[in-house]
Each structure stands twice: as C-alpha cells, then as structure tokens.
Design goal:
With 337 residues, the chain is α+β, with helices and mostly antiparallel strands. The protein has 2 domains: 174 residues, Ribosomal Protein S5, domain 2 (2-Layer Sandwich), CATH 3.30.230; 142 residues, 2-Layer Sandwich (Alpha-Beta Plaits), CATH 3.30.70. The chain has 8 helices and 16 strands. Strands 2, 5, 10, 11, 12, 13, 14 and 15 form an 8-stranded antiparallel beta sheet that branches. Strands 8-7-9-6-1-16 form a 6-stranded mixed beta sheet. The structure holds ligand 2P0.
C-alpha cells in the first residue's frame, strides 16, 4: 500500500485562465502545454489499514491549512474510487512530496505535485495506471496538473460535461517529437506574487470585460498551434505563444482591481527577445501568472539566449526541454492509455 511517483511541471503555450466550475476545476477554454524536463516533483503515498488523519509533508515541512486540505481532498477521491472498484477503502495516508526546482521560478510546482500525487495515490490504493483517470483526478487538485500526467505536448480538452469527466489532458506529441526545443526560465524576481493564480483568474472571469473574447480566442489558438508543433516550426509556435501570453495578461490588466504580474525586468527581457530576433536568433517568450519570462528557443541558440537573460537581470536561469510522462518509481513504467 505504498507507491512513489515522479512528474514534471509544464508551461502552457496557450494558457488556461478562468474556471467555469470552481469546485471541480473545469476551465472555460482548452489549453496546450509542453511538459518540462528535467525538473520534477517526487511524491510517496502510503496507505494504512487504520482510519485517522492523513499526514502531509511538502518539501520537508508539515503542510497546514488550505495546502493540506487540497491534498486530503484528492486522497479522499482515491479512496472513493478504490471502494467503488471493490478494493476496499484505504485508511489514513502518509504523504511526502519534494520538488527539485526553485519554487520562486514561478513554474507551477502544483502542476507537477498534483500529477505525482494522483499517480502515487492511485497506485498505493492498488488501482491500475490509467492516464485519463489520473489526469481527471490531478485536475481536481490543480487545473494545470492534468497536463503533467503525460509528457511532450499535451492539450487540456475543456470538455462540456457538468461532471468534468471529459475535461482532461491528452498527449498530442511525445517528448521525442521535438528534443531540440529549449525553454529557459529567466528568474528576474524571487518575490512571492501578491495575487495567486487561483484568485487572479477568479477576479478576471468576474470583472474583466475582455474575458469572453479571451476564452473564445484561446480555443481557436489551441487549434491553430497544433499543426505548427507537428511540423516543429519554432517561429510559428513562438508567435502563437507570445500573442496568447499578451492576451492572457491583457485580459487580467482589464480586471477590477487590475491585475499586473509583470515587473520592469520582465518587459526588458521581452524587448531584448525582439532585438535578438532581428539579429537572427530564434527566440520567443511566454509568461505565466508571474514576472519570470520563459523563453522558447532551440538547442542551437540556447547559449546566446542565456547570455541576454543574464544581461537583463535574470539572477538564475532554469534550462528545460520537453519532458516525459509521470512515472511510478520502482515498478515497470507501463502507462495505460
Ligand atoms: C496555465 N496558469 O495554463 C496558466 C497560465 C498560470 C498562467 O494554470 O486554481 O495553479 O489550481 O486550477 O493550475 C496556474 O493555475 O490554478 C495556471 P488552479 P493553477 O498554466
């Protein structure tokens, strides 16, 4: 009744921003991301037979409050599934989780964490691997986590059902499809953001007059970017990623109160990107709900891009490439699709 799983974070090229159902974490629009290796979160879950309070430890600290409750809620969903499948409901759980990348990078560590938790908890309960069920489960911990069950390029299909069963991540191309793609996170700020993504997107849905246009456009951009990824066209992918990031942030700027995640250094890097392109370097930016830009480039131009990031105030650069599936550690890496 014990299992360990490892999952990578992901960066969206077409972003998720806004829920139609807060409890089930169902989005207004589809989104598409690339899973980020080599960064990973590793999570162990052990179920005991006895009932009692779950023990939750994250990065060496006992989790409290909302952080703990989100984990406990997911463990409860696993118990319910195990019971429904006649495996008997497992008792209290001991869960430990640790990430190997700086939380301040602004990469959603919660995506990797809930993906690893979904895989480890189901396995510890004796359930067979099933990526669709794992993705649906991970989504209920943190929306973007549904895109970290599988590696490579993953589309989160928004779905239309009220129960969320058709809202999960689906791999379109695996990590081996585009191994020379590079994603460099430039850490221009380590400050904790004032408005968490969850609250920021809620405020945007409620108050931004641009929200309906955002959601409609993002769905179209998901469709547009797929053939560009298929033919590994960095310029076409980069252009969609940049304009989608601008549109997500524009929608957030227009909220009441306005929401701005950018810092002066963020704009400085974005402008440097445009300059680099004029010099023949293939580089485009994307930006999550935080100030640290993520630059899309190729293995060939990686060194030139890193140099410019440092020159524009990045205190650290986190270098990533397309990563693989979430995996159970210490057991055959068979993934049910
Ligand atoms: C994304 N972000 O598509 C977007 C872009 C941030 C900006 O998904 O409330 O941590 O747990 O579903 O998944 C961050 O939001 O939010 C996010 P919840 P989550 O990657």
């Amino acid at each position: 009744m014990k299992a360990t799983a490892k999952a990578h974070p992901n960066i969206a090229l077409v972003k998720y921003w806004g829920k139609r159902n807060e409890r089930l974490i169902l989005p207004h629009q589809s989104s598409l991301s690339v899973t980020l290796g080599p960064l990973a979160v590793t999570t162990t879950v052990e179920f005991e037979a006895a009932r009692g309070d779950d023990e939750v430890s994250i990065n060496g600290k006992v989790a409290q409050g909302g952080e703990r409750e989100r984990v406990v809620a997911l463990l409860q969903l696993v118990r319910r599934e195990a019971k429904a499948r006649g495996l008997g409901a497992p008792g209290r759980a001991r869960m430990t989780s640790a990430g190997d990348f700086p939380a301040a990078a602004g990469l959603a560590s919660s995506a990797a964490a809930f993906a690893a938790l979904a895989v480890a908890a189901r396995a510890a309960a004796g359930l067979k691997r099933d990526v669709k069920t794992e993705s649906t489960l991970a989504r209920q911990g943190s929306g973007s986590a549904c895109r970290s069950i599988e590696g490579g390029f993953v589309r989160w299909n928004k779905g239309t059902r009220a129960d969320g069963r058709d809202s999960y991540g689906e791999q379109l191309f695996d990590a081996a499809h585009w191994p020379e793609l590079r994603l460099l996170v430039g850490m221009v700020s380590r400050e904790e953001k004032e408005v968490k993504s969850r609250d920021g997107m809620r405020g945007t849905v409620k108050t931004s007059p641009y929200y309906p246009a955002w959601a409609k456009d993002a769905d179209l951009e998901v469709k547009r970017i797929v053939p560009f990824i298929k033919r590994r066209d960095l310029e076409a992918v980069g252009e969609v990623a940049e304009r989608n990031a601008w549109r997500m942030h524009a929608t957030a700027f227009a909220a009441n109160p306005p929401l701005c995640y950018l810092k002066p250094e963020t704009l400085s890097v974005i402008q440097a990107c445009a300059q680099l392109r004029k010099q023949g370097v293939g580089v485009w930016f994307t930006l999550d709900a935080g100030p640290n830009p993520v630059l899309l480039t190729s293995q060939r131009d990686e060194a030139a891009v890193a140099k410019v990031l440092t020159a524009h105030g990045a205190s650290e650069i986190v270098r990533c490439h397309p990563g693989g599936d979430a995996q159970l550690i210490g057991s055959p890496a068979s993934v049910g699709r």
